[in-house]
TrEMBL record:
NCBIfam families: queuosine_QueD (TIGR03367). The keyword Metal-binding applies. Zn(2+) binds at H25, H39, H41. This is 6-carboxy-5,6,7,8-tetrahydropterin synthase. InterPro entries: 6-PTP_synth/QueD, 6-PTP_synth/QueD_sf. Its EC number is 4.-.-.-. Pathway: Purine metabolism; 7-cyano-7-deazaguanine biosynthesis.
Amino acid sequence: MMIYPIPSHDYEYELNKDLNFSAAHHIPDARAGKCERVHGHTYHVNITIAGDALDDLGFLVNFSALKKLIMDEFDHRLLNDHEAFRDIPPTSETLAKVIHDMVQSYIKTEQPNEVKCLQIILKETPTSYVVYRPKEKR
Ligand SMILES: Nc1nc2c(c(=O)[nH]1)N=C([C@H](O)[C@H](O)COP(=O)(O)OP(=O)(O)OP(=O)(O)O)CN2
Ligand SMILES: [Zn+2]
């Protein structure tokens, strides 16, 4: 089991959601070596959200809603076809930021309580992962 890096904050609540999705991608540049060819991964994502207030259900954010958001967008797709990767390849780094921005935009529009996505961990292979944290914490 992976031990996650922890973002520092002073919010009262912190939520973490793990999920997996399957997708294909390629990095269209010879410098990427074998990754220039289309290949697949079971991506593992860890989403960290924090806030001081819960909604009327007692949720910071619904775990299921977070999973659905990511699965609907990326599961069983070729990531290179996604509009977010029109100008930059779908690497672990770029995908982690895209997922962060999607989650932040979702909670801003759908959650009445003020919550923030503090960190995305994106694990592409058993030996490779990235951590994305937005600059400002609040
Ligand atoms: N900084 C990055 N480097 C690489 C990325 C990336 O997203 N960011 N991606 C790839 C490939 O897509 C590849 O799927 C993953 O590479 P790698 O970790 O080298 O995979 P291996 O299974 O071959 O690694 P082992 O060291 O044999 O476990 C490449 N680089
Ligand atoms: Zn890959």
